[in-house]
Design a protein that fits this description.
single chain; about 180 residues; 2 domains; five-stranded mixed sheet; four-stranded antiparallel sheet; 13 strands; about 30% strand
Length: about 180
């Protein structure tokens, strides 16, 4: 008479791939993979706080009227993202900029590398200065800038006016608020 183990193996060999048979193995694989990835991140020095520096802080407009989105003036240098409007608001060297969220090369959402004080595209590694100027990579121009103006202690971003450095250089250069 076959043992319980032999019967279980025979049943597994004849299984048609139902979720009940596959679920424990999949859960175990995912759990073990998570531990492996956590170990690799720790070995690279990517603590949760450092890993978070590879993402933009999330904000929301404090008001929207037509194509205008209003934001508080950032308190210090760095970058924030409004996912709803796909806007990056950045402060650098006493100026505030509003950028399109996507890389001008292939429209991949950009990341702010806080430790390196620059933007980078995760897809092809195009890199940009905090003012949106192109540094290196596959892109051929700086980050696209929205028209922006100051209104008291806020900045107003005109979501209908987006400037490309290679097509609208004068407007692109003017698309900032000096503090």
């Amino acid at each position: 008479m076959p043992s319980t183990h032999d019967r279980a193996e025979a049943a597994r060999d004849s299984c048609t791939g139902c979720a009940a048979c596959d679920a424990p193995a999949r859960r175990e694989f995912l759990r073990e993979s998570g531990w492996v990835l956590a170990g690799i991140a720790a070995a690279l020095g990517l603590t949760p706080a450092r890993a978070a520096a590879f993402h933009l802080d999330v904000i929301a407009a404090i008001g929207t009227v037509g194509d205008d989105a209003t934001y508080p003036i950032p308190a210090g240098d760095g970058a924030m993202i409004d996912k709803g409007h796909e806007v990056i608001l950045a402060r650098h060297s006493d100026a505030v900029y509003a950028f399109a969220l996507s890389c001008p090369h292939q429209r991949t959402p950009l990341r702010w590398l806080d430790d390196e004080r620059r933007f980078q595209c995760p897809k092809h590694k195009s890199a940009y200065q905090p003012d949106g100027s192109f540094i290196s990579g596959r892109a051929t121009r700086g980050m696209d800038r929205y028209a922006i103006r100051r209104a008291g202690d806020t900045v107003v971003v005109d979501l209908a006016r987006l400037f490309q450095q290679d097509r609208d250089l004068t407007d692109w250069n003017a698309a900032l608020v000096k503090l």
